[in-house]
Amino acid sequence: MNEIKLDLKDKKILYELDLDSRQSCSKIAKKVGLSTEVVNYRIKRLEEEQIITQYQIIINLAKLGIIQFKICLSLQHLPSTQLNSLIEQLKKKEEIKWIVSCRGDWDLIISLEARSIYEMEMLKEEVLSLFSGNINKKAVSMLIEAETSNRGYLLDKKPTSKRIILQQEKAIELDSLDISILKELSNNARIPLIDISHRLKKSPRVINYRIKQLQKNKIILGFKIAINYEKLGIKFHKLFIYLDSPNKKKIEDIENYISTNKNSITQVKVLGNWDIEPEFETFSDEDFENLLIEIKDKFSEIISKIDIITISKEHKFVYF
Fold first, then answer.
1. Higher per-residue pLDDT: 210 or 320
2. Are 226 and 189 in contact (CB under 8 A)?
3. What pLDDT was estimated at residue 92?
4. What is the pLDDT of residue 169?
5. Cβ(104)–Cβ(310) under 8 Å?
6. 301-311 burial, b if ≥16 CB within 10 A, otherwise e?
7. What mean pLDDT do residues 100-119 have?
8. Binning pLDDT at 50, 70 and 90, where does residue 193 land?
9. Mean pLDDT confidence for 88-102
């Protein structure tokens, strides 16, 4: 696939949509120094060229009583045609929110949501049974806390926005309308109010009020975009960092370093074999290598091991 080179205006538009993908074209236009019509045209072109692949909602899952966990698989004796068939089966399962193919220590990562430890165990066994006889090694990790940052690297600046995906809080009961609104926004976070109104048979005023309340109660934490890594020549790396008896200060230091790095997009604390799972996007392997060396040098006394994977393909990604 031929890489597409973006000019500075396109990068600024992507940066703004990643900060808040529900921003109006007129608001973005003022920030990037273009007319509303030109911004609208450029966004539609970015969509048509499949550079923007999705408009996403960010939800504090813990407030909905949701447990998120990952299954990492290293596979064996599995032809690509059979693997692709299994991935298609997994994509249809509502509890599965993220599926990626990888290069490195793992071949496939599957992220799921459950309402209880019992349901988590049932889902895990269901997924593993699909790959019976094809698993070389496996690992399961449960999210304790996660945050996502805007893509500062698009404009060569540190991230300015951090949104918590999961943080241990008291769960809130939502009614059917709120859940329906979250589902609509999960499918397309930029969907106009009038379209949600028509689909849910409620007035735009009611829909707008409900969205604002979901934001006020910190259930909706923001709106961002998903992008086509291959078309932009972006490398998506995930690290599995094992820490060796670190004190609280050292943990805070490494977390702060990662969260303020311009290439950091997600940072996750987990209960599992490893301790933290940061994700980075870079425009070159060299940028990533420099970043990795800096992390290892700066925190050598507490890092015992780092497993590295490169995401080669995202098969599914929804927040809710």
1. 210
2. no
3. 96
4. 67
5. yes
6. ebbeebbebbb
7. 96
8. very high
9. 97
pLDDT digits (tens, 9 = 90+) for 258-296: 989 999 999 998 999 999 999 999 999 999 999 999 999
Most distant CA pair in the chain: distance in Å? Answer: 58
Checking if the pLDDT of 164 tops 90, the result is no
Concatenated DSSP letters for the chain?
-PPPPP-HHHHHHHHHHHH-TT--HHHHHHHHTS-HHHHHHHHHHHHHTTSEEEEEEEE-GGGGT-EEEEEEEEE-S--HHHHHHHHHHHHT-TTEEEEEEEEES-SEEEEEEESSHHHHHHHHHHHHHHTTT-EEEEEEEEEEEEEEE--GGGGTS----EEEEE---------HHHHHHHHHHHH-TT--HHHHHHHHTS-HHHHHHHHHHHHHTTSEEEEEEEE-HHHHT-EEEEEEEEE-S--HHHHHHHHHHHHHSTTEEEEEEEESSSSB--EEEESSHHHHHHHHHHHHHHTTTTEEEEEEEEEEEEEEE---
> Are the beta carbons of 75 and 107 closer than 8 angstroms?
yes
* One-letter amino acid for residue 162 of the chain: K
* Strand-pair category, 108-114 with 67-75: antiparallel
pLDDT at 166: 66
Question: pTM to 2 decimals?
Answer: 0.91
What is the identity of the amino acid at 122?
A: M
Strand pairing category for 108-114 and 162-166: unpaired
